[in-house]
Amino acid sequence: MIHGDVQPGFEPLAKELARQLAKSRGGAAVCAYHRGLPVVDIWGGVRDERGAPWQRDTMAVSYSTTKGVISTALHVLADRGLIDYDARVAKYWPEFAQGGKGGITVRHVLTHQAGLFNVRDLIDDARRLLDWDYMIKVLAAAPPTIIPPGATAYQALTYGYLVGELVRRISGRSVPQFLAEELAGPLGLDGLYIGAPADQLHRAARLIGHAARGPRSPEAMRAQSQARLRRKRVFGAVERALRFVGHPVDFERAASALAPRGISAFDFSSDEVLRACIPAANGLFTARSLARLYAMLAAGGTLDGVRILSPATVARATEIQHRGFDQITVLRMKWRLGYHRVPTLRGGPPQAYGHFGWGGSGAWADPERQLSMAFIVNTGAGSPIGDLRILRLNAALMACAKRGA
Asked: 1-206+249-405 domain in CATH 3.40.710.10?
């Protein structure tokens, strides 16, 4: 059953979410804004493996959807003239100049051109992600991995520490404090955390079917190993075919960015992880808070009389910087400064931008139609940047908006 509110003309989103939940063991929520007003605010399903129902205030860990939020935080500082996109990172973070990184700029970081994607060689275990000081120290010391001039290589797990440390150095505040004071508070957001406080964890949905839950039997481990070998053979064939036609695919490079050692036993929805600050991957959000944040962006930086960014800063932050294939996602991401393009099953709105995540979540804005949408969910894996569920929801919303234009 779907709960919540849907304005006339936007019923197809509720139908699509209901269809998805009928095939799912878990739960999800969708929120959309049109012309500055909420038109869809719905949820359904269950929030954990015990079957507790998803509630109006339920939040879900949203993986790389978090990157759009931390990027927006940095743009607040740029809007105030406190950071220059074309300045060297070391201007604000002197230790970063180690390892030959003195020439890397803030723009390089925001467009995934810094060459610091290789988290597998950077840390010895995924649990290092829980230690902010450790991650900052190793990133400052690390040499960049060489990527072709002008290419991009998605910093799947390192991006948040790079941007988050800039926010911390410039503002003098932690990432959780900055988000609370500069985004969540002013916009009245009901759940927008990167490093959630302990007293809010009762609202968190837990991942369903996650491999880290409980010890695995020898049979399960053998099955997983066999599945890994099958995937390796398939990926090898796909890689050879894509390279034959000139695509710069390298699945081993992609794995180095996406899968540090021990990641299979790292439960992103555990209390321990949700309390930590991993600004590329562990944001705990309601769909409502994300949709409202992106509604502000869609409106040029102001919502309900509250100005977060100037229209000029929004325009600079969302201008396409790169149109080629990304070395890690192997897709044309059309990177902006911390955001990417918005695909649907019926093409993508050319002016739209946002960020999607592993597990299926995502949030985006379309300034042309004054539209924003967010989707949070606790089941599925998909790709590093969403899956077919959000593409179907995107298509449904675009069709509704066009009919109501």
From this structure: yes
